[in-house]
Specification:
The structure is a single chain. The chain has 88 residues and is mostly beta strands. Helix content is 0%, strand content 36%. The chain has no helices and 6 strands. A hairpin with a 2-residue loop joins strand 4 and strand 5.
Amino acid sequence: IWVNGGCRAEFRVERRGGYDGPESTRFTCESPNGSPRFCPSSSHGDVRLVRQISRAACIEGRTWGRERGGVSLEQGCRAEFEVGRRPD
């Protein structure tokens, strides 16, 4: 994991069953001071919001979105995300 440009985040990598079966990866990302932020993910697969941490709303398509290689946040959203493969 690498950070740049004053990025502030808590990272936790977990390997466990669940979202993608054999393993998944969780990470925390935030939009500091309401500024847009892209948080890359080292895992390939689908991203889902696991837990909103901020008081500001984290709504997919409005304050956060999936992008190739990570997620983009804005408007103060701070949340924990999980990357994995959707179950069939």
